[in-house]
Amino acid sequence: MAMKRAASTFLTSSSRISSSLSSASSIFNRNLHASGGKKKIVGVFYKGNEFASLNPNFVGCVEGALGIREWLESQGHEYIVTDDKEGLNSELEKHIPDLHVLISTPFHPAYVTAERIKKAKNLELLLTAGIGSDHIDLNAAAAAGLTVAEVTGSNVVSVAEDELMRILILVRNFLPGYHQAISGEWNVAGIAHRAYDLEGKTIGTVGAGRIGKLLLQRLKPFNCNLLYHDRLKIAPELEKEIGAKFEEDLDAMLPKCDVIVINTPLTDKTRGLFDKNRIAKLKKGVLIVNNARGAIMDTQAVADACSSGHIAGYSGDVWFPQPAPKDHPWRYMPNHAMTPHISGTTIDAQLRYAAGVKDMLERHFKGEDFPEQNYIVKQGELASQYR
Ligand SMILES: NC(=O)c1ccc[n+]([C@@H]2O[C@H](COP(=O)([O-])OP(=O)(O)OC[C@H]3O[C@@H](n4cnc5c(N)ncnc54)[C@H](O)[C@@H]3O)[C@@H](O)[C@H]2O)c1
Questions:
Q1: Is 1 part of a structural domain of the chain?
Q2: Whole-angstrom distance, CA of residue 168 vs CA of residue 321
Q3: DSSP string spanning 318-335?
């Protein structure tokens, strides 16, 4: 069993956690539970409601259930799907004590806290239908000997395309024009006084992994000045092909940018990265696109900078928490082009991440490893960028 291998390697090799007797014994217990047999699998997705039946490929919602219900049930597994994820009386909470596998999604995140992990005595595997597992307490999952994996690459094109759209929406000052169209107004000046071309502008991406690189490739024909900051440099040939310049020092890159796009995961290092001080050092009139994670920004600092005009436009689909409460400040700040969390859950993306989840479940049942790039927590260790 992959889980058995994981646990035994973990017990012998991890100096970080092996010091804790209690966590070692919890891993041992989970190892016993990870043996074959019928599993209880819980999926937490957004509700499809009246839209669920409009498209047979709409598999990402509760009703679509990733299209794996028949397959799971035909093997005798129990599959419970819900959108009810918050609080002690939620449907999710009810199943925490005896579920074996939890499938969650960043679009409607089931926050998997250390308390929930402690309560989930049978839990073996946490799968993210999509990319970004920050809704899970990854350190607690590692300490408990759990595997966390996501469908790496499944929606990167979907997000990169969406980011390009958001950049254009902000640069061209599109939304006020749309609002005029639907409200019977006609005021060209009200739009034109702050509408620009994208050509010639400096665009910097913070993070140039799968999504960041795809965005840079898509921006190339717009003849911009492209910059990127990352822990890692892009391979020289690709860097040359894209024509983007590496900026080792984030704070040296940011003030040069007319448009900043965030493309890093949410980790201990990126949480609150854009606080009041860092935002104050950005170019006045900067545009920001953030489809990465809401908590990379200081919520109030962004709202204040939009109100003062220091940030001239902010767009993204990620918030904290999600769903965003009715009084979330980003709903009311000026010059924003926010949407619910949507970019990575196009129908194409849903089909890809549903197939990826099915593949990993199949491997899990057979005791086989997953594709290496899918692991976020494996054998008690977090993936390198989360450490
Ligand atoms: N809005 C959506 O629907 C949606 C969908 C998919 C992914 N995402 C978000 O986008 C993120 C990136 O996705 P990806 O597929 O490109 O991931 P990726 O792992 O391919 O790329 C992430 C890049 O960030 C860099 N990085 C990590 N920490 C850093 C730090 N502290 N400083 C500088 N660089 C750092 C990494 O080196 C890597 O190159 C995900 O983690 C997720 O949070 C959002």
A1: no
A2: 26
A3: --SSSSPPTT-GGGTSTT
Query: Which atom of ligand 1 has the smallest separation from the CA of 273?
Result: 31
* Number of compact structural domains in the chain: 2
pTM beyond 0.90? yes
What radius of gyration, in Å, describes the C-alpha atoms of the chain? 22
Q: Which two tokens stand for residue 203?
A: 């665009």
Which residue, among 220, 271, 268, 276, has the nearest Cα to 244 in the 3D structure? Answer: 220
For residue 166, report the distance from its CA to the centre of ligand 1, in Å.
18
What's the CA-to-centroid distance between 264 and ligand 1, angstroms? 3
Sheet holding 244-246, edge to edge: 244-246, 225-229, 202-206, 259-262, 286-290, 311-316, 336-338
- Per-residue model confidence as pLDDT tens digits over 286-326: 999 999 999 999 999 999 999 999 999 999 999 999 999 99
Question: Could you tell me if the CB of 155 is within 6 A of ligand 1?
Answer: yes
In sequence order, the β-bridge partners of residue 177 are none
Is residue 265 located within the same domain as residue 221? yes
Q: What is the CATH number of the domain that holds 132?
A: 3.40.50.720
Q: Domain of 52? A: 6-154+346-386
